[in-house]
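Hi! If you just cloned this repository, the fastest way to understand the data is to look at a raw example. We've pasted two of them here, unedited. The first protein comes first, obviously.
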Amino acid sequence: MKNHLVRTHRSAEPFPREEHLAWRIAEVAADPVEVAAETAEMIVNRIIDNAAVAAASITRRPVANARAQALTHPYQPGATVFGVEGRFSPEWAAWANGVAVRELDFHDTFLAAEYSHPGDNIPSILAVAQHAGRSGRDLIRALATGYEIQVDLVRAICLHEHKIDHVAHLGPSAAAGIGTLLGLDTETIYQAIGQALHTTTATRQSRKGEISSWKAYAPAFAGKMAVEAVDRAMRGEGAPSPIWEGEDGVIAWLLGGPKAEYSVPLPGPGEPKRGILDTYTKEHSAEYQSQAPIDLAFRLRERVGDLDQIASIVLHTSHHTHYVIGTGSGDPQKFDPAASRETLDHSIMYIFAVALQDGTWHHERSYAPERAQRPDTVALWNKISTAEDAEWTRRYHSTDPNEKAFGARAEITLKSGEVITDELAVADAHPLGARPFAREQYIAKFRTLAEGVIEPAEQDRFLDAAQRTPELAPAELSGLTFTVSDEVPARSPQSPKGLF
């Protein structure tokens, strides 16, 4: 990996295009390097993972509405949409599938200087692959690029510090991945990356306060914009540049300011793209920084015994966890029993209370209104707070994968004055955890979330296609989806008709 210094440049300052971050990313995307076997294996795992969480969310209102929008844009050759037959315009397929994948906050994650869900790259890149008649091998190469670029940007450039939403790294990574998929030249990919970044940079209010369904829509929008950006760039249309480093660019006005510097690592020429291997998926349907605390709560249940005897719980954790999903956020909604699922998903206090009470976690039952409004849950919930711990923050930012951690130390004070403490650095499903996820676990997750949604024979067909992704011919790439019976979408809440 080579580190590239990125900073603002005055308009009058010499700054060759070949030194722009967008150009360097485009060079990585255009590099025809082969994909390592372990990278391809993990990409297949994440294709399965995305389909699993899409199956679990297929009847939810935001997903149904996004799907309804896509279905009004049939197109040939087009791309597939989860749950239905037919082919649709690729940008709209990317939109619908992106919402389905993101809705439950249940797919893969990478946390460093910024947050990310790199699996958000898959819907847009897959849609274009299906539409453009590319092979499974082409798809694997493209997804390796999408993951690599997003991971590298996340390692180096913090967005949330400046209240910019993390999907600002997704637009460029998806555009780069599509560039790899189509074998585009560096210039075209460069222009697409600039457009994608320019159109997908927004504030973090989508993840603050009363969190709405736009939390799921935002990554899908970034993927849709990436598809459209590539289309325009292929037609010869350009982008604002230098998009990151310009005098009125992203760094100068949206991030650290004119004097800020970032060191962005990128693979060198001929260097394999291995970024996906540093990412991890979720065993529990909750924000990633709550994965280890959920497992910790399960472990503490027996030691605590009677939960009514708890006087207070303090979760000592990283800066990120404290300020994003903890009491450091200052969001009263994180203690509101009537809050949306999206808000409860970003309340470590709620999550720890329910995990401690139930000893299990479910993507629907754990967030149900009747579950959140139980008096004993509300009482326990309000006894929980978070505190930033410098050591947890240091480990969160560590570049050593054996030390990097997203956990917490729980300090439970009982009414008797007894204090029970325990800690967990990484979730059980993490590569360094007690039960690391491998192909078997990804398939089990798919089977669990597909139950009652996808017929068993269709589950088998999809899993067979997914596991053969590297060998799929272009005509077979449409198999990387699933259909459901007409009865399943009928369970979705009814919404008013929109424009389409």
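Ok, and the second one:
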Amino acid sequence: MNSDLSLLLWFNGHHSPALDQVAMILTSGFTWIPLYLLLLFLLVRRDPRRTVWKILGCVALCLLLSDGLPDGIVKPLVGRLRPSHDPALSSMLHIVDNHRNTLYGFFSAHASNTMGIALFFSLLLRNPILVATLMCWVLVNCWTRMYLGLHYPSDILVGLLWGAVSATVAYTCLRRVQSS
């Protein structure tokens, strides 16, 4: 058994009914709406209205890169089954509420999105408490994806790296737009 599968089975294998529900709640994008609103509030409070739209445009670019690329191009192109859809793994995985998600999972858009947003706002706002909070948010989201059997650790790792690239590109674009 390779280390990618071993790690997945470790994360997925340490389950309980309470953790199942926690993971399902935390993996939902709706759960994090208060965080998104907080980031918007901090953004509006920090920057005058004329620059907020530029920043929001760069956030949209970050999301397009971090979500659009994996879901729209990479996953169908690579065609790597999610662990939850792999017939060879079905007897080994704990699937919560039959939540299997889409067919392909390489690479994790959840990991990419959360890292992209976390790093973008970390670079923008430069607040150590916010940075620590956002990085914890990223790690929690990554944990849920493995706990639920939706991604291999390598899917998560590549997602994190791509999210960091997406945030760096978006932040660089913002700096260029703001300086012109």
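That's it. A detail worth noticing about the second one: The radius of gyration is 17 Å.
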